[in-house]
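Open question from group meeting: does this chain pack into something compact, or does most of it stay loose? Before anyone orders reagents, we agreed to write out a predicted structure and look at it together. Recording both the input and the output here so the notebook holds the full record.
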Amino acid sequence: MGKLIEYFFGEGEHALEFGQMDTLDLLVQQPGWRMGDLADALRVDPSTATRAIQRLEKFGLATRCGSTDDKRVVVVSATESGRKRHADAAARRQELIIHIMATFDQDEFRELSTYLDRFVGSLDQFVAQLNDQSDLAE
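Structure tokens returned:
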């Protein structure tokens, strides 16, 4: 499993952690993110998002600057290196998915799709229940 992790996230001192790759996945989706919005999108505490951005900055993959609209607001974005690293990782992910999906015939693929739909639906229900419980506790 170690080689697979290195294949997707890098190796040695430049390896990204899962959360940092998740952050990079979001950063490339738009030109800039307010830190609070990024934390919400990642479903993490703002301090966790800040730490992920700091590490990405250290690698030259992200940058922070003040908002042009409100200097109190920090906006983060992927650098050109960050966009390249993300594109490379996305191509590797696609290669893996194509390899895996090629092992299924059409009937198996339909079955898998049905099971995955049920899995995601069940996960969504569980999260909704957690959110309902959290709302009641507040």
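Observations to bring back to the group:
The chain has a mean pLDDT of 90.
Residues 2-103 form a domain with the Arc Repressor Mutant, subunit A fold (CATH 1.10.10.10).
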